[in-house]
Amino acid sequence: MTSNNILTLGQKFSVLIVDDDKIIRRIHKVLLNKFGFESHTVENGKEAVDLYLSGKHFDLILMDMEMPVMDGPKATRELRAMGVNNMIVGVTSRGLDSEKQAFTEAGLDYCVEKPLTSETITSLLQELAKK
Amino acid sequence: MEGNHFQRQAAYTRKTLFDQGYLDEQFIQLEDLQDDANPNFVEEVVKLFYTDSARLIRNIDLALADNSSHFDFEKLDDIMHQFKGSSSSIGAKKIKKECTQFQEYCNAGNLEGCTRTFQQVKQEHATLKRKLESYFQLTRQAR
Predict the structure, then answer these.
(1) Element (H, E) at A87
(2) pLDDT along chain A (131 residues), means of 10
Protein backbone atom coordinates (compact mmCIF):
# COMPACT_ATOMS: atom_id res chain seq x y z
CA MET A 1 0.00 0.00 0.00
CA THR A 2 1.46 3.39 -0.96
CA SER A 3 1.69 6.14 1.57
CA ASN A 4 -1.50 8.07 2.02
CA ASN A 5 0.11 10.87 3.97
CA ILE A 6 -0.12 13.12 0.95
CA LEU A 7 -3.78 13.61 1.80
CA THR A 8 -2.85 15.12 5.15
CA LEU A 9 -0.30 17.53 3.62
CA GLY A 10 2.18 16.35 6.20
CA GLN A 11 -0.13 16.86 9.18
CA LYS A 12 -0.26 13.94 11.60
CA PHE A 13 -3.77 13.30 12.89
CA SER A 14 -4.53 11.46 16.10
CA VAL A 15 -7.36 8.95 16.39
CA LEU A 16 -9.04 7.27 19.33
CA ILE A 17 -10.45 3.83 18.47
CA VAL A 18 -13.28 2.94 20.83
CA ASP A 19 -14.38 -0.68 20.40
CA ASP A 20 -14.93 -3.69 22.66
CA ASP A 21 -13.88 -6.07 19.87
CA LYS A 22 -10.11 -6.65 20.08
CA ILE A 23 -10.01 -7.86 16.49
CA ILE A 24 -11.56 -4.64 15.23
CA ARG A 25 -9.23 -2.60 17.44
CA ARG A 26 -6.21 -4.40 15.97
CA ILE A 27 -7.37 -4.12 12.36
CA HIS A 28 -8.36 -0.48 12.62
CA LYS A 29 -5.14 0.43 14.43
CA VAL A 30 -2.96 -1.07 11.71
CA LEU A 31 -5.14 0.38 8.95
CA LEU A 32 -5.11 3.87 10.44
CA ASN A 33 -1.37 3.74 11.17
CA LYS A 34 -0.80 3.04 7.47
CA PHE A 35 -2.62 6.28 6.73
CA GLY A 36 -0.31 8.17 9.04
CA PHE A 37 -2.62 8.43 12.05
CA GLU A 38 -1.31 8.20 15.59
CA SER A 39 -3.82 5.80 17.09
CA HIS A 40 -4.87 4.98 20.62
CA THR A 41 -7.37 2.28 21.53
CA VAL A 42 -9.86 1.81 24.37
CA GLU A 43 -12.46 -0.87 25.03
CA ASN A 44 -15.61 1.10 25.81
CA GLY A 45 -17.22 4.51 25.89
CA LYS A 46 -16.40 5.17 29.54
CA GLU A 47 -12.67 4.77 28.88
CA ALA A 48 -13.01 7.26 26.02
CA VAL A 49 -14.79 9.78 28.23
CA ASP A 50 -12.24 9.26 31.01
CA LEU A 51 -9.40 9.94 28.58
CA TYR A 52 -10.91 13.27 27.63
CA LEU A 53 -11.58 14.09 31.30
CA SER A 54 -7.87 13.48 31.93
CA GLY A 55 -7.07 16.16 29.37
CA LYS A 56 -6.31 14.03 26.34
CA HIS A 57 -7.57 15.12 22.94
CA PHE A 58 -7.81 13.46 19.54
CA ASP A 59 -8.56 14.75 16.06
CA LEU A 60 -10.87 11.83 15.35
CA ILE A 61 -12.81 9.34 17.45
CA LEU A 62 -14.01 6.09 15.92
CA MET A 63 -16.86 5.07 18.19
CA ASP A 64 -18.37 1.59 18.15
CA MET A 65 -22.10 1.53 18.78
CA GLU A 66 -22.54 -1.45 21.08
CA MET A 67 -20.13 -1.79 23.97
CA PRO A 68 -20.39 -2.89 27.58
CA VAL A 69 -20.00 -0.40 30.49
CA MET A 70 -20.88 2.59 28.26
CA ASP A 71 -22.12 2.28 24.68
CA GLY A 72 -21.35 4.51 21.73
CA PRO A 73 -24.45 6.73 21.78
CA LYS A 74 -24.08 7.47 25.51
CA ALA A 75 -20.34 8.16 25.23
CA THR A 76 -20.95 10.43 22.24
CA ARG A 77 -23.60 12.41 24.12
CA GLU A 78 -21.31 12.78 27.13
CA LEU A 79 -18.37 13.89 25.02
CA ARG A 80 -20.45 16.49 23.20
CA ALA A 81 -21.90 17.69 26.49
CA MET A 82 -18.33 18.16 27.73
CA GLY A 83 -17.71 20.45 24.76
CA VAL A 84 -15.71 17.97 22.70
CA ASN A 85 -16.04 19.20 19.13
CA ASN A 86 -13.59 17.01 17.20
CA MET A 87 -14.88 14.60 14.57
CA ILE A 88 -16.69 11.59 16.01
CA VAL A 89 -17.49 8.83 13.54
CA GLY A 90 -19.80 6.03 14.57
CA VAL A 91 -18.78 2.57 13.49
CA THR A 92 -21.36 -0.17 13.53
CA SER A 93 -22.11 -3.58 12.13
CA ARG A 94 -25.83 -3.20 12.81
CA GLY A 95 -27.44 -2.39 9.51
CA LEU A 96 -30.77 -0.97 10.66
CA ASP A 97 -31.27 2.63 9.52
CA SER A 98 -33.20 3.45 12.69
CA GLU A 99 -30.29 2.37 14.88
CA LYS A 100 -27.80 4.33 12.79
CA GLN A 101 -30.09 7.34 12.87
CA ALA A 102 -30.36 7.21 16.66
CA PHE A 103 -26.59 6.87 16.96
CA THR A 104 -26.03 9.79 14.60
CA GLU A 105 -28.43 11.95 16.59
CA ALA A 106 -26.32 11.34 19.69
CA GLY A 107 -23.77 13.72 18.13
CA LEU A 108 -21.87 11.92 15.41
CA ASP A 109 -20.43 13.59 12.36
CA TYR A 110 -20.82 10.41 10.33
CA CYS A 111 -21.81 6.79 10.79
CA VAL A 112 -20.05 4.07 8.82
CA GLU A 113 -20.10 0.29 8.71
CA LYS A 114 -17.29 -1.78 10.09
CA PRO A 115 -14.75 -2.96 9.38
CA LEU A 116 -13.44 0.27 7.90
CA THR A 117 -12.01 0.23 4.41
CA SER A 118 -9.21 2.25 2.84
CA GLU A 119 -11.81 4.21 0.90
CA THR A 120 -13.62 5.23 4.10
CA ILE A 121 -10.37 6.30 5.76
CA THR A 122 -9.45 8.35 2.67
CA SER A 123 -12.80 10.17 2.86
CA LEU A 124 -12.36 10.84 6.59
CA LEU A 125 -8.85 12.17 6.02
CA GLN A 126 -10.17 14.57 3.39
CA GLU A 127 -12.78 15.82 5.85
CA LEU A 128 -10.19 16.21 8.59
CA ALA A 129 -7.83 18.10 6.30
CA LYS A 130 -10.60 20.63 5.59
CA LYS A 131 -11.01 21.49 9.29
CA MET B 1 13.06 -24.64 -5.62
CA GLU B 2 11.24 -26.09 -2.66
CA GLY B 3 10.17 -22.59 -1.71
CA ASN B 4 8.54 -22.20 -5.13
CA HIS B 5 6.66 -25.45 -4.67
CA PHE B 6 5.24 -24.25 -1.35
CA GLN B 7 4.49 -20.87 -2.89
CA ARG B 8 2.47 -22.51 -5.62
CA GLN B 9 0.68 -24.73 -3.12
CA ALA B 10 -0.08 -21.75 -0.89
CA ALA B 11 -1.42 -19.76 -3.84
CA TYR B 12 -3.60 -22.68 -4.91
CA THR B 13 -4.92 -23.20 -1.37
CA ARG B 14 -5.69 -19.51 -1.09
CA LYS B 15 -7.55 -19.54 -4.41
CA THR B 16 -9.69 -22.49 -3.38
CA LEU B 17 -10.60 -20.80 -0.10
CA PHE B 18 -12.10 -17.97 -2.14
CA ASP B 19 -13.53 -20.12 -4.94
CA GLN B 20 -15.27 -22.43 -2.47
CA GLY B 21 -16.78 -19.49 -0.64
CA TYR B 22 -14.93 -19.81 2.65
CA LEU B 23 -13.43 -16.31 2.43
CA ASP B 24 -14.54 -12.97 1.04
CA GLU B 25 -12.86 -9.67 0.15
CA GLN B 26 -12.39 -8.71 3.81
CA PHE B 27 -9.58 -11.30 3.96
CA ILE B 28 -7.90 -9.45 1.08
CA GLN B 29 -8.19 -6.23 3.10
CA LEU B 30 -6.26 -7.97 5.89
CA GLU B 31 -3.64 -9.16 3.41
CA ASP B 32 -3.26 -5.59 2.17
CA LEU B 33 -2.39 -4.51 5.71
CA GLN B 34 0.42 -7.06 6.04
CA ASP B 35 3.85 -5.54 5.48
CA ASP B 36 7.36 -5.45 6.94
CA ALA B 37 6.05 -3.66 10.03
CA ASN B 38 3.35 -6.34 10.52
CA PRO B 39 4.74 -9.40 8.68
CA ASN B 40 2.33 -11.93 10.23
CA PHE B 41 -0.67 -9.68 10.51
CA VAL B 42 -3.20 -11.94 8.80
CA GLU B 43 -2.25 -15.01 10.83
CA GLU B 44 -2.21 -12.89 14.00
CA VAL B 45 -5.72 -11.59 13.40
CA VAL B 46 -7.05 -15.04 12.52
CA LYS B 47 -5.53 -16.42 15.75
CA LEU B 48 -7.18 -13.59 17.68
CA PHE B 49 -10.48 -14.50 16.07
CA TYR B 50 -10.24 -18.17 16.99
CA THR B 51 -9.30 -17.39 20.58
CA ASP B 52 -12.11 -14.88 20.99
CA SER B 53 -14.73 -16.86 19.11
CA ALA B 54 -14.15 -19.94 21.29
CA ARG B 55 -15.43 -17.87 24.20
CA LEU B 56 -18.47 -16.68 22.24
CA ILE B 57 -19.27 -20.22 21.12
CA ARG B 58 -19.18 -21.37 24.75
CA ASN B 59 -21.55 -18.54 25.70
CA ILE B 60 -23.97 -19.39 22.92
CA ASP B 61 -23.90 -23.07 23.87
CA LEU B 62 -24.70 -22.09 27.47
CA ALA B 63 -27.47 -19.75 26.36
CA LEU B 64 -29.02 -22.46 24.14
CA ALA B 65 -28.97 -24.89 27.04
CA ASP B 66 -31.07 -22.52 29.15
CA ASN B 67 -34.10 -24.45 30.37
CA SER B 68 -35.89 -21.55 32.05
CA SER B 69 -39.50 -20.88 31.08
CA HIS B 70 -38.75 -17.60 29.32
CA PHE B 71 -36.00 -18.14 26.77
CA ASP B 72 -33.88 -15.03 26.20
CA PHE B 73 -33.63 -14.75 22.41
CA GLU B 74 -32.42 -11.16 22.70
CA LYS B 75 -29.37 -12.24 24.71
CA LEU B 76 -28.72 -15.02 22.22
CA ASP B 77 -28.95 -12.56 19.33
CA ASP B 78 -26.56 -10.16 21.08
CA ILE B 79 -23.88 -12.83 21.51
CA MET B 80 -24.36 -14.02 17.93
CA HIS B 81 -24.10 -10.41 16.75
CA GLN B 82 -20.65 -10.22 18.33
CA PHE B 83 -19.64 -13.54 16.83
CA LYS B 84 -20.89 -12.55 13.37
CA GLY B 85 -19.05 -9.23 13.60
CA SER B 86 -15.79 -10.97 14.40
CA SER B 87 -16.34 -13.47 11.60
CA SER B 88 -16.92 -10.60 9.18
CA SER B 89 -13.67 -8.99 10.30
CA ILE B 90 -11.62 -11.88 8.95
CA GLY B 91 -13.75 -12.43 5.86
CA ALA B 92 -15.21 -15.73 7.06
CA LYS B 93 -17.99 -15.84 4.49
CA LYS B 94 -19.60 -19.22 5.22
CA ILE B 95 -19.53 -18.67 8.97
CA LYS B 96 -21.13 -15.26 8.49
CA LYS B 97 -23.89 -16.78 6.35
CA GLU B 98 -24.74 -19.36 9.03
CA CYS B 99 -24.70 -16.62 11.67
CA THR B 100 -27.24 -14.64 9.65
CA GLN B 101 -29.46 -17.72 9.43
CA PHE B 102 -29.14 -18.19 13.18
CA GLN B 103 -30.19 -14.61 13.81
CA GLU B 104 -33.24 -15.08 11.60
CA TYR B 105 -34.30 -18.03 13.75
CA CYS B 106 -33.64 -15.90 16.85
CA ASN B 107 -35.86 -13.13 15.57
CA ALA B 108 -38.55 -15.73 14.84
CA GLY B 109 -38.21 -17.18 18.35
CA ASN B 110 -37.38 -20.58 16.85
CA LEU B 111 -35.15 -22.37 19.36
CA GLU B 112 -34.98 -25.58 17.38
CA GLY B 113 -33.85 -23.65 14.30
CA CYS B 114 -31.23 -21.81 16.37
CA THR B 115 -29.88 -25.04 17.83
CA ARG B 116 -29.72 -26.77 14.47
CA THR B 117 -28.08 -23.78 12.75
CA PHE B 118 -25.56 -23.38 15.53
CA GLN B 119 -24.26 -26.87 14.77
CA GLN B 120 -23.63 -25.60 11.24
CA VAL B 121 -21.90 -22.50 12.60
CA LYS B 122 -19.57 -24.64 14.70
CA GLN B 123 -18.88 -26.96 11.79
CA GLU B 124 -17.96 -24.09 9.45
CA HIS B 125 -15.90 -22.52 12.24
CA ALA B 126 -13.87 -25.73 12.67
CA THR B 127 -13.51 -26.34 8.93
CA LEU B 128 -12.18 -22.85 8.26
CA LYS B 129 -9.75 -23.15 11.16
CA ARG B 130 -8.33 -26.35 9.70
CA LYS B 131 -8.04 -24.89 6.22
CA LEU B 132 -6.44 -21.65 7.36
CA GLU B 133 -3.95 -23.51 9.57
CA SER B 134 -2.87 -25.54 6.53
CA TYR B 135 -2.67 -22.38 4.43
CA PHE B 136 -0.54 -20.51 6.97
CA GLN B 137 1.79 -23.49 7.32
CA LEU B 138 2.31 -23.42 3.54
CA THR B 139 2.97 -19.67 3.55
CA ARG B 140 5.58 -20.12 6.28
CA GLN B 141 7.27 -22.89 4.33
CA ALA B 142 7.18 -20.75 1.18
CA ARG B 143 9.30 -17.97 2.77
Answers:
(1) strand A87-92
(2) 47 92 94 93 98 96 94 97 96 81 94 88 88 73
